[in-house]
Amino acid sequence: MYTSHHLRTGAGAYARVGVESGAMSASPHQLICMLFDGAKTAIGMARHHIASGDVVAKGLSISKAVNIVDNGLKASLDADAAGPAGAQLVANLAGLYDYIVQRLLLANLRNDAAALDEADSLLENIASAWREIDPAAAQG
């Protein structure tokens, strides 16, 4: 009646609906947290695929992480909203995101788990600082 393929496909669809529903009701702050979480998951999967020798899956996972960092986290930076005092911070974060993308691309090219670890660690440092400034927690 149900094959394992159908169960995996159904579970994947259910998970996507959950993520999409969560994203639709999330605050801007929560959306950035979700991007950090997605990048961390993609990097973890890439690490697993390097260890198992699955070159295609590794490339897909790293591409996903690059996309999240470049088209999600970096693209969400807004120097105008940061004002003059925050403009330098925005520029520094943009540079750091560029560096993280370079490390991810190098990890893909050379199957370099250490480069993945560095990118993951840098993202985690930014993510933990971002979580500390949660506006919902400050209001409560």
Automatic annotation (TrEMBL):
The keyword Cytoplasm applies. CDD domains: FliS. The keyword Kinase does not apply. Gene3D superfamilies: Flagellar protein FliS (1.20.120.340). It is found in: Cytoplasm, Cytosol. Keywords: Bacterial flagellum biogenesis, Cell projection, Chaperone, Cilium, Cytoplasm, Flagellum. It comes from the Bacteria. Belongs to the FliS family. NCBIfam families: fliS (TIGR00208). This is Flagellar secretion chaperone FliS. It comes from Variovorax dokdonensis. The lineage of its organism: Bacteria, Pseudomonadati, Pseudomonadota, Betaproteobacteria, Burkholderiales. The gene is fliS.
